[in-house]
Amino acid sequence: MSGADANAFAVYVHWPFCLSKCPYCDFNSHVRHAAIDQERYARAFAREIETTAARTGAREVTSIFLGGGTPSLMQPTTVGAILDAIGKYWHVAGDVEVTLEANPTSVEATRFAGCRAAGVNRVSLGVQALDDASLKMLGRLHTAQEAMDAVKIARSAFDRYSFDLIYARPDQTPAMWTDELTRAIGEAAEHLSLYQLTIEEGTPFFGLHAAGKLKTPDEGLARTLYDVTQEVCAKHGLPAYEISNHARPGAECRHNLVYWRGQEYAGIGPGAHGRLDIAGRRHATATDKRPETWLMRVEAGGHGITSDDELNSEERADEFLLMGLRLAEGIDPRRYAAISGRTLDPDRIALLREEGAIIVDEDGRLRVTQDGFPVLDAVVADLAA
Questions:
Q1: pTM of full prediction above 0.70
Q2: How many CA atoms does the CB half-sphere of 337 hold within 13 Å?
Q3: C-alpha distances out from residue 314 to 282, 326, 342, 384, Å
Q4: How confident is the model at residue 141 (pLDDT cuts 50, 70, 90)?
Q5: Torsion, Cα of 244, 246, 249, 255 (10° steps)
Q6: Is the confidence at residue 223, as pLDDT, over 50?
Q7: How many angstroms separate the Cα of 200 from the Cα of each of 28, 75, 188, 204, 377?
Q8: H or E segment at 162?
Q9: Distance (Å, rounded) from C-alpha 265 to C-alpha 277?
Q10: What is the per-residue pLDDT for 23?
Q11: DSSP character for 106?
Q12: Domains in the chain and their CATH numbers?
């Protein structure tokens, strides 16, 4: 990391509302049939930003991420009010990355133009699939054509854009995924987020899967689809810089790098998490997940935080390993030692190297191999033991 990267400070803002709940999604998202009072929520976001900035003191914000939920359902004036509040209570870097998550159903040229005018300079589109049958199965409200239209709008409005796809879907073959991914890369320009479909407890897909009504690829096929992902993206100049994220060199999502590198970020909005260094201690914060309850908490007390835990050195070190080893750049074992107060076990490192799960480069950085990524949790557990 460069010196500038080492001092990165990010702000994550969570807009919790969606038009519908996808059957695979376990994120903190909510459907409301009544109109959302966006002015009231904008004031609450600004209030929580003010309170958080009072705790952190002076910081230079290097990235902002408006996530959700579906943040593109916000009016540009709401987006502008949130970004103005961040600029009022912290210093914002001149080259700040400001990302807005968007669904193709909620994309309008006028809204995108308004968001760009408000300060957004990067958009991340939830495309998820390029064929209508898969989109219907995933519970998406847009068609493949609408998704591609949205990508074109994003391309015209923003210098930087990305979109997501979900693979390892029912009945998906390596040949089908190769074709879909190749088409996606032709539209993606610089960045793709590619996620294996996972069955999360508490979602409709979990019940269907348990009842045998939703069949996902077995372990062997899932691994083949993962390998296809790496090969096709690398061939087209978008290598993986993180397990699920691919970019042309220099086009990585700077905001997400803050998470994976174990740096500081403020979590603003319902259900947002943060990692803040206050008086030399790392704090893990979380806010109330329920939008209306969060709103009342902020209006009454200035913030919606429901947990604020000081992480000890062991917890910080475990988190550093878990997040940092997701990156192709890996971790610096010296930073692990500085955080944890102990060095990684050289015998465990030697064994994992022998098994082909990790490598140690000439700079001493420890990196997980392509063979190691599918069993990353086991690699992390072994190193942390």
A1: yes
A2: 10
A3: 12, 19, 9, 9
A4: confident
A5: -50
A6: yes
A7: 13, 31, 28, 9, 17
A8: strand 160-167
A9: 9
A10: 67
A11: G
A12: 3-259 (3.20.20.70), 330-385 (no CATH)
